[in-house]
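Bench notes, afternoon.
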Amino acid sequence: MKDYSTIIATAKKTILTESNAIANLANFIDTNFENAVKFIYNSKGRVIVTGIGKSANIATKIVATFNSTGTPAVFMHAADAIHGDLGSVLEDDVVICISKSGNTPEIKVLVPLIKNYGNKIIAITGNIDSFLGKNADFTLNTFVEMEACPNNLAPTSSTTAQLVMGDALA
């Protein structure tokens, strides 16, 4: 076990790494974000929020936030969507699709299906040049320099950025 000073230093580094990632999100707020908010506000449908892996966990929290603000929202797991649950998306619904890479196999299958139904997609992604970023109607950038994980692997800063962007939308 690490000594207490190392534990405290690691905790502080995690907090500072994530807070810097969040502060940088302000640089990505532009008219694209404004247009996404206006589209949600003017929509007659619900907000459907979807994702894979840890992004799906973030999606459920964003749904809760939208519902708290009086905006009807539903979570739909991206893997379930491509295996039959896409029928729950109605004509006037807005779909928010969350993916750090924007290039997962599930997202690459799901996005064209949603577009085929005529629904608008708001992407929350750390890679605006990804399949998702290029095929969404509105793309919100949640790029982070690094994860707070010492190996830069576990989704930490990236999921925090996704959550904060969802809160900003709501």
